[in-house]
Queue: 3 jobs
Job 1
Amino acid sequence: MKIGFLGLGNMGTPMARNLLKAGHDVTGYNRTRRRAEELKAQGGKAAATPADAVSNVEVVITMLADDAALEEVMFGNNGALPAMKTGSIHVSMSTISVSLVERLTEEHGKHRQHFISAPVFGRPEAAEQAKLFIVSAGPAEPIKKCNPIFSALGQRTFDVGEKPSAANVAKLGGNFLIAVTIESFAEALTLGRKHGLDPQIYFEFLTETLFGSPVAKTYGSRIARDNFEPVGFRLPLGLKDVRLALAAAESAAVPMPFATVIRDQMLEALARGMENADWSAFARVVAENAGL
Amino acid sequence: MKIGFLGLGNMGTPMARNLLKAGHDVTGYNRTRRRAEELKAQGGKAAATPADAVSNVEVVITMLADDAALEEVMFGNNGALPAMKTGSIHVSMSTISVSLVERLTEEHGKHRQHFISAPVFGRPEAAEQAKLFIVSAGPAEPIKKCNPIFSALGQRTFDVGEKPSAANVAKLGGNFLIAVTIESFAEALTLGRKHGLDPQIYFEFLTETLFGSPVAKTYGSRIARDNFEPVGFRLPLGLKDVRLALAAAESAAVPMPFATVIRDQMLEALARGMENADWSAFARVVAENAGL
Amino acid sequence: MKIGFLGLGNMGTPMARNLLKAGHDVTGYNRTRRRAEELKAQGGKAAATPADAVSNVEVVITMLADDAALEEVMFGNNGALPAMKTGSIHVSMSTISVSLVERLTEEHGKHRQHFISAPVFGRPEAAEQAKLFIVSAGPAEPIKKCNPIFSALGQRTFDVGEKPSAANVAKLGGNFLIAVTIESFAEALTLGRKHGLDPQIYFEFLTETLFGSPVAKTYGSRIARDNFEPVGFRLPLGLKDVRLALAAAESAAVPMPFATVIRDQMLEALARGMENADWSAFARVVAENAGL
Amino acid sequence: MKIGFLGLGNMGTPMARNLLKAGHDVTGYNRTRRRAEELKAQGGKAAATPADAVSNVEVVITMLADDAALEEVMFGNNGALPAMKTGSIHVSMSTISVSLVERLTEEHGKHRQHFISAPVFGRPEAAEQAKLFIVSAGPAEPIKKCNPIFSALGQRTFDVGEKPSAANVAKLGGNFLIAVTIESFAEALTLGRKHGLDPQIYFEFLTETLFGSPVAKTYGSRIARDNFEPVGFRLPLGLKDVRLALAAAESAAVPMPFATVIRDQMLEALARGMENADWSAFARVVAENAGL
């Protein structure tokens, strides 16, 4: 398939590479040109503008840092949206706001293009190994057409219906649950430490009995070791996702007290200078607030 | 081994039965005599008072509803503590306060008896099937001696050190994490429902990707189905455990913002008349507060 | 002075009238024309567009519902900003976001116009009686020139410095404190009611001893009587102000746990159908959550 | 009147002295004898035990640090309760738990004695100047008899009914509102500081417009100056009162989210080593958490 790939960062680069490996014809665009040249060196093509990357393809994939970056490549100078062919498909795979998903759904409709929201779960290592989880939503026919793409990128895709924003909400809720895991393990392990429990033993007890989800194992282990390296996803990006979840909650009148606690903990972490730390490092706020 | 078993409720009865099956000599005591008679019918002995149940045994197991009940059987009229033999072992398996564990540690020491804290994870079904998880703490020699008991009751025992209260804190932290799972899945699924996500599909997506702990599967499924039957553990008992966790946190100066949110949700559930519901039903408060 | 007044709602209309009474030459603009005609009937002038209202004046006052409304009259079709004379002054008196204040400061600077932020405290009755409190910030000379205007509108003006956004933050913090008063009196009076205290007696005790601020007297009395009529300021506007405070807090990395609690209570009130109630009615959520 | 006064601390000593000045016959008891001797030097009598202090009086006043101290003097060795005369009155003026008030109501009833709950608002300076506020509850006749006592101690007494615990709840709710004032001014002033507002100017603006309660003036000024000296009431005592309020709330199924926030802030303050600071110093936690 001919694919335009916009956004070649820590996640986008390994994803585009996996599409090449699967035999697709991939044209990449990135704000800093060097990343697109690297893709070219691996068998892809490099485009100078978003419009150039998408004008001749069936599927456009976007994987960008935030709403502003996506708006820029779609609606900005030499933007992708007006350059896309009638009947082509935009698959938005980054974590963006519900309101932007709704706007894109509407704009692509006006241009007789298709829009699918298909955000992913997984850190850069999972992207590399094509082990992402994908949650997709959108009209049935275009989703069917994109299945080979999803297979090349992830270990499993979950279809949650025809309304694109539903996939986005599913993703935001998932990121919220990761943050909940971080905060809750931080609280439990801090309580334990202050009462003389060895954090490593306590972590093993918890994850080998009732609380052994993949997320708990990954993040709980970091908290037990009090070591938040390497940095896979920076704290301000984590805060951004919580903010998007709270905005989606506010627009639907849903109180989410846990999400508000997490937001405050992350702000506290930023105020203490952790803006370059991995987002899981906000667990340290819990320990520090207990005098550890 | 000769064992005195105090407290034959929903949990204690199947536990005592499993000890009988494993060949131990078990004398049971329960506040309402009928339960002890049932144990007798199954090959055990029935005692009329706590003192009678323990005066001639090597190991005393207690499995009672709360601090007050345990204080009554240990220190009250015909209480167990003064009747226990020198060198015998008290294994406290219910969820009690850190301060009562500390008091028992001290009192048994004065009487030259041993004290082990070994609370369990698992609902009555798990007790029945000898599938409990046990977290033990106390002096090494008595714990070693009790290993056959733990094997007869649970699928695995975790030893967390010599300080009995540490096992208790481990258990309170675990119950806290179960309540966190309930609240967080309630928030995520409510957010999803109000944005058009099918709760069953969203639950499956979450637990089959990153969040699939045993606790998430059990309780998340109840929340997705909005059905909190059968009642395994009543809400006021759940609130009691959160209260004990908060007390342990307060005594060690540990802020636990998630625990305080949960406490408020449970009080709200009680105020709405859910005192006979399963404790997981406080998830309904989240949905109702969002207008569902 | 020649004044252009944009926004003739519940607050703007009595304010513009007070400026007429004080002898100023006031041209009014409102999205729905009727309000401007009413002002004309009282001795003012009616303009058809924002640009018409401001093209010939020394001072432009804006009093609009939210950021979007202000952006529309300033930057939209026939907007005020490009029509204002060099050296004229824009006095923004409504409660808007810190980021919009910063944008206006910059844009007016580019057009060699002056910008003052001067939001007000007070409900429509206070506006009518020229009893508003005004908190102003901006360059010294223009503020001095506007003092007669402030005198005609309010009982007292507080100057908080040269940076316009500071006045805005001061106002948002003040609205936050009103919401805090509502929530805290609701919690205290609910606790009292459930323990048999008469809410009216308890309210009097509190406000006649240590807690007798004007805000506590106004809102505490509503809560004690459980009567939130008349509607002076609708709940969604109250939520908007809390959202703006939280955004200002987030941009400066300030955790505000009380503000997050209030946000959740207001969302809960909206989910229960209170969108047309006075914002103080979110106190009912506190009572209802305790089963009252 | 013949009065026994139990508890001659920072509050009790000036109160007992004011009773002497008003012409009453006061016998004092304190755990550390020296305080009672000082009272003797000022015209009172010194008793060696609680029983000695009360065996011959009409009215017994207690002013002690906490539940445990009051239980000790009433029910402990040489305790006051069995030594009090039939028909005499116990006026409990310290801040104690609702459950202890209920127990005292019952026990005094059994001994055909009267029990009044009459806690006070005010710091030691107010006690000195007989400027306390008193909130009383209990049977009408004994309260009437105690009016001269209340007049000698405070500036005003509020009678809230016949049920003694109601006065106690009123007091706990009041202390909660003081803590709310501290937290909320800390949040607002911190937000202001991080946006360039001078805290002193902002404090004046707030307290001279809508938020000028006596409590806001006293504590807001401390926060604006970031100076929490002198220490009138230590942080652990403040936490104790919040704990009592939360216990009263829990027993009546009242969620109090603001109270739970305050509890966490106080624990954080303790974890940072503020156990000897004035309780208002927990405001510093808010500033520090924002990086100030």
Job 2
Amino acid sequence: MNRREFAKLSLAGAGLALYGRSALAAKMPAVAFTRHHFEIDGKPAYLYSGEFDYFRVPKADWRRRMQLFKDAGGNCLATYIPWLIHEPVEGKFVFGGEDGVHDFEGFVQTAAEMGLYVIARPGPYQYSELHYNGLPGWLCTNYPELQSVDIKGKAIMAGSVSYIHPLFLEKAHRWFRQICPLIAKYTVSKGGPIAFTQLDNELAGIHIWFGSLDYNPDSMGFGKQDGRYPSYLKASYGDITELNKMYGTSYTDFAAVKPIAMPGTGTVIDVRRQKDYFEFYLSTVGEYGATLAGWMREMGIDTPLIHNSGGPKMVALYMDLVKKVGPGFMLGSDHYYNLDQNWAQNNPTPQSAIDAFCSLEALRLMGFPPTVWEMCSGSASDWPPPTAEDSKTWYRTNLALGMKGCNYYIFTGGPNPPGTGQTTDIYDYIAPIGVKNEIRPLYEVQKELGLFLKERPWLEDAEREYDCRFLFDFNMARADNYWKGKSAFQFSAGDAWEFFRKGALTSGLCASLSPAFCNLDSDEWVEDKTTPVIAVCSSSMSAAGQQRIVRFLKSGGRVLLAPVLPAYDENLRPCTILSDFLESPVIEENPGTFPRISIAGVINVLQNGASFITKTPPKGAEVLGVDEISGHAIEWSLKTGGGGEAIFLGFRWVHAMREHNRMMTALLSKWAGPLKVVSSNPNLWTSLRSWQGNSLLFVMNLWSAPMEGEILCRPAGKQAVNLGRQTLEPMSVKFWDLSKGMHS
Amino acid sequence: MNRREFAKLSLAGAGLALYGRSALAAKMPAVAFTRHHFEIDGKPAYLYSGEFDYFRVPKADWRRRMQLFKDAGGNCLATYIPWLIHEPVEGKFVFGGEDGVHDFEGFVQTAAEMGLYVIARPGPYQYSELHYNGLPGWLCTNYPELQSVDIKGKAIMAGSVSYIHPLFLEKAHRWFRQICPLIAKYTVSKGGPIAFTQLDNELAGIHIWFGSLDYNPDSMGFGKQDGRYPSYLKASYGDITELNKMYGTSYTDFAAVKPIAMPGTGTVIDVRRQKDYFEFYLSTVGEYGATLAGWMREMGIDTPLIHNSGGPKMVALYMDLVKKVGPGFMLGSDHYYNLDQNWAQNNPTPQSAIDAFCSLEALRLMGFPPTVWEMCSGSASDWPPPTAEDSKTWYRTNLALGMKGCNYYIFTGGPNPPGTGQTTDIYDYIAPIGVKNEIRPLYEVQKELGLFLKERPWLEDAEREYDCRFLFDFNMARADNYWKGKSAFQFSAGDAWEFFRKGALTSGLCASLSPAFCNLDSDEWVEDKTTPVIAVCSSSMSAAGQQRIVRFLKSGGRVLLAPVLPAYDENLRPCTILSDFLESPVIEENPGTFPRISIAGVINVLQNGASFITKTPPKGAEVLGVDEISGHAIEWSLKTGGGGEAIFLGFRWVHAMREHNRMMTALLSKWAGPLKVVSSNPNLWTSLRSWQGNSLLFVMNLWSAPMEGEILCRPAGKQAVNLGRQTLEPMSVKFWDLSKGMHS
């Protein structure tokens, strides 16, 4: 596998690969990550971690419960290190002691003795159902100036601070000066068990989830020549005249520019200004993360640094963070399917699987082994009940979709230190091991999976076998934060991102396609012409991305473009590279009230989104789909040289009908070759993961009813395997190990 | 059962009961409804209907499929009668013909021959995935003035008209003059099979679902002395001075008053104005319904008239309609749990069961046998798949919660007449009987239930055995349309309605309570002092309702009041009758950031909503719950004479923790006596339905994982029945018939 070897080498060159491997003094074998896997002692190994908070679990139970996790196949523990517990009074730090609550070092030493790695999570933020999300109360109440505020200057919530406020950074630095040296003492390179150190927690959540970005004037520097916001705009626009042109304003300098309230009116200018503020806000998050990372390095922490995205839908927010922290950093994501009755669904579903898939693929595209830093294990809510059965299905679904490591949140809990817990006195969390050391059914689920993974180290290297690729645009995947619904643009990027997930990708999976994602922002995918690319477009796409698609098409690639063509670049400035290449067709929203859309031979496909007509398709284009009412083209194909072909599909849908998956099949069948996996039941989704002749086929039933289907798969380099008719129990994932010659 | 006999008599007096029974010429036995049940030929019988659209099902298949439904226990069919099909060109009506598409009469005659009743649904609206929701295209395109519009005058959507626009009514009247005599010809009293006639369809949905109430100026009469809106306000306020006082305005007459846009700013005045417009809008819906009903009567339709609420959450919107149409009218509701992937959940859930329960109880309180006029049977979407297993569980859940009749939407379908269907050419709907007459698993589910009901006619009369009552305020149950979240009031009625469902009621069911609802607006519940009443309050409650609670308390009733006391009446004018009776305690929102609430002996109950403190509880009150941080009272009890007692609980939550159900148990245990049903697993909800010594116990597992629990029940007048440990498969409802001495 040349591509893979190349990647490994290039990463090593970038200083990312095999971090910590040079440790000579280590009592515990080195831990590392490459872009494909975790390694322990140089061998690929699944990182199987469990959250185990020393400040909650009674010291007397530490060894016993750690042993239980080892028995379950665990090789790592994670713990928050709550600032509020260790600095209860400003400037007075408390560590050690007999009760265990403050004995971080004792915990780390015990983990080492038990042969378990440790992920240290010193904050500053913790969340973890602690008061002020884990910040000290004195910090939040004595220093109101560091609170994050909305655009009107109103505090967002108690315990939501402005990350880059100088006073907050000063206090956080003092906390880090205490805790980071303690972490540094026990890293793997120094013979300790600490393998990873996490900076902060679910960044940006503390603002976005509670209704607003941060507009703290001191942090953002509104009105100041050298303020962050004016400086950011200056770096973007260079000259105030250019900004005035793009904003339709007449500012005399950058310091005078003020952000506008969300949501705006949907004009091009409003969307541009809101995108600017949103990206600026993310740049401050990146700056904050890089600041913390710098301190950690200065204070001697030589483990990889990690961060956990606040959920599958937030992964794309951290691009700037990843760039600013640089080598030695690894992003993962937290994957919960339910935490209380207001969540959309009580149990895992195909919709939550789509979200997890997008998250894991985005992480892979960023160059990380896809890792779930918080994998639900119990819940802060007793109701809806987090059942062992649903959890098992969720774990297997994540594994099927690419997960290479996880940390169960939580493996076991205990009493909250007095005056710190937001929920209950006992933080039991319905964890696999209860507060009285009781072993719950969820433990057996985690043990079964842990031992299964131990028996199959090759799975850590396995990748999904794919027969088509979805082009993933990180810019689009965060656009719904500032731009969705109707606007002056033909098609907003937020709506395109919804269509990507609920339309094209869902229909693709129902049509038995095996998709992998490829990164619009990278050249990696352009060379490979063997599988077609599905490019969901909004009115905006980076100039470089448009150029890549053109290059791909010119050199023999096949691309499905839907439902519009971009007319603006990533900064929302006019840019029609892709459209120009396709002879600048005029694409208009279909004005028909009741269109009748027939595409690629599939008659009357339900339009439950929108359709776009091309009155005059490009010269030489072949019309393949029309609105039968108006007769206008909806789908056309253009040969682009060297065997290349573009199909434009002016159609956006929410997957609902058999016709939608039949349309996907019809559109792609001439390009995709024999499907990797064929499932006769569109409700049974599959994933075939292979590595060096080994294969594991996953079949997922994420419904509350049993499902049946005929399953056939075609692992690379092997004969097709026909599994025949299979029945799956409600909410279950089955797998077939095709490595051992079980089927031939 | 004196209460029941009394009710029947009083209803007969009101002309509601046994409608149609006097029919002498009938070939088919009379059908009637009382407030407790349906009757066929004078005997209680479940109304088991299936949607069977003659314009879709090929005529050649009518008899065969009707027979299949009869075999399944069916006794009735329903059909839309689409205006757009029968008046394709304005003024040209098409009926009859060989193909069946236009042969309404042929269909009715065939049903009669097969011994099946018919529910006729002539619109004007149909929805049913038809173009323009079943209205003729010419009507919607040639007469733009009758479109419903938002407050800015923008049309809401194609096919959304203003119900009471004179031109729309003129056209609708012409349609009714054609179709109503045809219906009248075949009513049961005249020897035909038509037992019920539906007016319009899911009223108000066509506006509310698409983003706005109707503000059509012609319909509403803005600016006109005798316009509907000015007249409505005049009837409410009498004098413009009074309105100005309540609105803080200085209008010179009612014609000058304009509605304000939703949502407002949350001031008392804004909420009052929005409530006024919302209630006014509902009055126009009621007027429209009454107009249609009047025409139907004039044109000879002597069946009961019915209407289907657009969903469980809309039932309370139709109070005005019920009043205006008057005797001989019956409201039911449509109960779907999923129709496409954007619905909150793919399958039935405890949350959807709560919604169904509220709907069925509201219908019962309105004086109707709770009926589901559209019970999901298949789906307009192939995905998420509407499985037979989930449907079975949903049907049983509705039966457990009080359903006395239903119409499956749909039993069987077929091709849409050309140019009429919005979704697919073939309206298969994944129905129990496919378009090729294939029998699907869902048919067996419906047949099993149909035969089960036939064997147990007593079940039609059974009511839930209850051990506590929830006071239901229709005004509150529709308030979230105009008043929710933070406002100048202490606690909005929309939030109170959410707390009712997601907090108090959910915790009650998890605590093994068996609740029934009682109607705040009625005197019926005041006499019965045997079970306690839970009264969820907002800042607004009708004066009469407040008086009823006071009367109940004075005469020995026990009431739990939460989380505030009303300070305004139903018209949002100051009114503190209830508070005054409780010695006018000052109740304030708890300012503590991290309160620690202990209630009725349950320590540290999670506050995930809000809490309210009483700094000085009434003289003689006993404090039973406090915020331990501030020491202020959260819960106190006051004896009210004659054994009466009020507990005030200043606490609002979303059910999440074991502590929430333990709190409900602790609060009510001293009042409720032995529980009707005890389930040891809070995730297994139950309902015990009894009548004259017969009992059926339902146990519901609405989760995707199996559940176990110990179940014990206490049917009235019998020994307790201990069912021991029971296991329920995922997404299943079990029942035990305790009538036959299976258990003793």
Job 3
Amino acid sequence: MREEFRADLHIVSQLLVDMAEAIRVAMQNATRALLRADREAAETVIARDAEIDLIYRQVEERVADLLARQAPVATDLRTVITALHIAADLERMGDLAEHVAKTALRRHPSPAVPAELRGVFGQMAAVADRIAEKIAGVLSKPDADLAAELDRDDDAMDDLHRDLFAVLLSDDWPYGMETGIDGALLGRFYERYADHAVNAGRHVVYLITGETAAATTTDTGPVE
Amino acid sequence: MREEFRADLHIVSQLLVDMAEAIRVAMQNATRALLRADREAAETVIARDAEIDLIYRQVEERVADLLARQAPVATDLRTVITALHIAADLERMGDLAEHVAKTALRRHPSPAVPAELRGVFGQMAAVADRIAEKIAGVLSKPDADLAAELDRDDDAMDDLHRDLFAVLLSDDWPYGMETGIDGALLGRFYERYADHAVNAGRHVVYLITGETAAATTTDTGPVE
């Protein structure tokens, strides 16, 4: 029974790693679509979101199956429920990458982001990518120190989000309202992507250390 | 055993009704804060979000306890897992009401929403309130027809969201970028509130009819 439980849990973990890798590639492609007005990259993100949703449903089915067959209790039960939380955060990160891609597509062939904002979005994308890499890493090989780094990465994202708003709200912003609003919403998508990653990371830490993870998604952007 | 399961499930359902009522009041107060620059209403929303999060944790604890003691299988198991999804959607709706309240507070004593937008936000708030009322209703007394109405309410919200953007992007928008961006983000908060309600409603329908609910949160605003 115990061995079966471990084997089942390993399959769930592997699905979470697959999801984490998929949402990392999704944001890479979304950023390419955004900064290079790359239509194909945007369409790839949108097409593949269904695959991410499919893995999410597989996690849920595997977990339901595991609960039914193994009836875990105590720590084992909490571990299984925590896996559901991580999957929900990762699924939402995939949606956010899709929002970035759709924004790029709506403006295509014009770039959705003007030259003045390309630097800050490039940096936000770099932080998002680092974060997604760490999530995939800690899910493959639990590491509480690495997971804890996610909080610092999220602070870096919040700083960039603030920089973005400083540009959008400066007196010499040369573009119109639509570009400004797109910039604000895109900033929010990257910032929320990081928030969900931090949340997923806290759940991973909980799995490793047994310390209570935050029950809710923190949402710490300067625009709230 | 069966009776115990029913009794446990009833407690979980009651907690969900409590959450639904709390997130309805939260958005009512957030709207009051927004449209009347009512500082006290905003602070109430922020203070009470912790109570909503607490009920969410109680749902999770009750569910974990129920799984451990009753080890439900098949439909019973799916019912219990669905309750977790509904709770997650409701918790997020509470966060969105809090975002509205915080935006109002940041601009206080100025109104965050200028006169030109008060009409459309009043209508969005009315749809949000109708939606929250229905969620609380179907959770207290399952009714698939009432839950299905949520899709139409969500369409109404999307239409209002489009109207909002038409005002924000019109050539004669007399306000600056900050007010425009606040308007866009506030619109997104109301629209996402409705999306999560629809999602929760689908889960309720699934509980009633056994028909598959959407596994992921639909996010159907015109700005994506």
